[in-house]
Amino acid sequence: MSELPHCPKCESHYTYQDGEMYVCPECGHEWSEADMAAAAEAVLIKDAHGNALQDGDTVTVIKDLKVKGSSLVVKVGTKVKNIRLVDGDGGHDIDCRIDGIGAMQLKSEFVKKA
């Protein structure tokens, strides 16, 4: 017996297959294999060199970045440890904490995987 995927919306494990669609009886969500593949592709976040990033990675800043609302600058070569990938505003898809500056969000196009 094959293992059916959990519901992507409510994480229920009571899903069933109806033709080519999967259905969740708890929340009523329906999805297909193509929907799951598209969602996995959309979540993939890459650095400036095309390397896939994951939560917990360490990255290096490749460009001087001005901190909005402050006179601080994140310098080239700054290492940022333990990043978290998020769906942020304006393309800011990395949530992190930088020593000496604090919590902030970065765009993945300005970092490279360390």
UniProtKB/TrEMBL annotation:
Give start and end of each Protein YjdM N-terminal domain: 3-32
Which part of the chain is the Protein YjdM C-terminal domain? 45-114
Question: InterPro entries, from UniProt?
Answer: YjdM (IPR004624), YjdM_C (IPR013988), YjdM_N (IPR013987)
Q: Which family does it belong to?
A: Belongs to the YjdM family.
Protein name as annotated: Alkylphosphonate utilization protein
- Organism of origin is Acidihalobacter ferrooxydans
**Lineage in the entry?**
Bacteria, Pseudomonadati, Pseudomonadota, Gammaproteobacteria, Chromatiales
